Amino acid sequence: MTTGAGAGAGGNSISGGTQGTVVQAGHIEHLVVHQTPPPADEVTVAPPFGRRGTPLRGRAELLARLLDASGTHVLYGLGGVGKTSLALAAADVLARRGAPVWWVAAQDAGRLAGGLRAVARRVGVREDELASGQTADLLWERLAALPGPWLLVLDNADDLALLDGPGSLAAGTGWARAPRTSGLVLVTTRDGDPAAWGAGPVLHPLGALPGPEGARVLADRAGEQAGPATDAELLAVRLGGLPLALDSAGRYLASVAERPAFLRTDGEPATYGAYLAALGTGDLAVDRDGTLARIWAMSLRLLQDRGHARVEDVLRLLAGFADAPVPLRVFAPDRVDVPPGELWTCLQALDRLGLAALRADGEPVVTLHPLVRDAYRAERERLSAEAALDSEVPEEHGPLWPLLVPHLLDDLGPDAPEDVWAGAVLAVRSLNARGLVAAAGTAVERVRRGAADRLGDAHRTVREACFEHGRALLNAGREREALALLGELAAAVGVAVGADRPAAPTPAAAPDAAPALVPAEDSDLVFALQVRNELATALQQNGQLERARTEYAGALDGCARALGPDHWRTLACRHNLAVCLALLGRTQEALAELETVRAAESRTLGAEHPNALVTRENRAVLLLESGDRDLARAELAAVVAARHRLLGADHPHTLSARFNLARCLAPADALPELTAVLEARTRVLGPGHPVTVATRETLERLARTLPG
Length: 708
Hints:
mainly alpha; five-stranded parallel sheet; three-stranded antiparallel sheet; elongated
């Protein structure tokens, strides 16, 4: 049977029952800062094959498509992501096949125009024709007349205004146009704005390298002596899958390995694991030579030149969050000084350049590139994530909570302000509500200790952390520890254990007036009632049923008078009292109470609210035990379907309902269902959790009853 402490507006807590790939970039991003372009007669259009380093990783499929393609294809993404590497690989293959290949540096007007004039000469445009001022038209006419395949690369074309030339890039009359023959034009750029490119080119975003491919890039430089592939994958993820950063780390490890051990300094990392640890402690800088800083600076200048004046303000805001997707609701207009429209255009621009990834479908989120986050972490602006919650509570299982939890638990240092600790308690509450037993248990101990050190044991936030710790212990099957902790908390908040009501005073009511109700979430009285309800659950799970019944009854009386008979907390207390009555053998009395609660919750919360589903499940279990198997089976099947849809297949509440539904089945049909439930509970709760053990014992007893 499932019991619940009613620990949130969305559910009685369960207890006792129940990216694509990318190419490598190793010194292949053609970064030129404040250099004067050479005279036109010194421009070369030969591909820089000498800059090819270690093998190409992670782009075999895209490379194959490009080699069979024609037209204009744009490779865009963050600097250092490997755009030039992919273009060089295509140039190498086509050159080996005998196709003409030209490489034009497009980072400034002089190089671009000089390079394209050099290409024009190669394809037969005369000097007197070049002097006519129609170079672009003449170049593309000659290219269209060429037989067979050819390749023109425009590398580092970050300023798209330069590609307009005498016409318009978007209109197809600029320097870059779609060839009308079998020729291929590859453009590498940071800017993937579809509006700027027009309808002709095909855009290919290059994102982060996934862990396994990133590990191969590291191994290409560092070799096997740097550690196992699993460690390399962890380091690759920490470096954001950026090929340039991976190449830099691999070179570093290789340089350490080639020196005798006695020539290494103490603590100098020589393995993937040591390098990762040094990054985590701040003892090692990813960007030792400033290459990445120059990449960020170039990208930001590009955005600022295009009118995104507040882009660095937005980056500082994003850097204040954990390395995880940030829901855009945290940037409500009343919380940030960047106007909403400007914020949105900045996020779009950061997404196009690969500095961040914007996802606007479903719950809108933005993910800052981890290395960009590192670069801005020291000057971040911390924005408390819990302020984005509005009226939502963790137990309602909305899409926002899983996104907020990593941010609410991030950077919980000794100087963290009070509201940060309050948000961390909400995060634990969400983990408890979502049945993430291990995660809740790990997080709550850290939150409770840190909040107590910062705020003191008597602070309300610390007491709420203790309450969530008690819930987490109950969910983990550690009933004795939970009872001790909740007993101490009950005494601290003024709950008179065993009395008819909490010691805290109830609001007075005028004669003949409706009962005066206290605020539901902030009242000390309501918190005391909540603690008493959870304490009763701990008593029940420790086998002290009569004491649990007394505490449930006291909590129910207090909630009814303070909040009203139909408040969700009052109904949760009544539900829990009914479960306790059932465990005491008072089945018909318990059924009557559960029917009352079921009707009220269906009316006030809805039949598929998490609280209502708990009540429906436990009522069905009592119906089964009373002999009404068909009604119990139909109700449990409906609960399983609703929970599967709302909470997911692995939520402990879903598994509880599946376990109870299996009890309604014939033994041969119940066996595979209980086997599946046992596998899931072992994975979710652990093999030693009391619920897992009970499931295993039930399955073994059932198996012994079957023939064979």
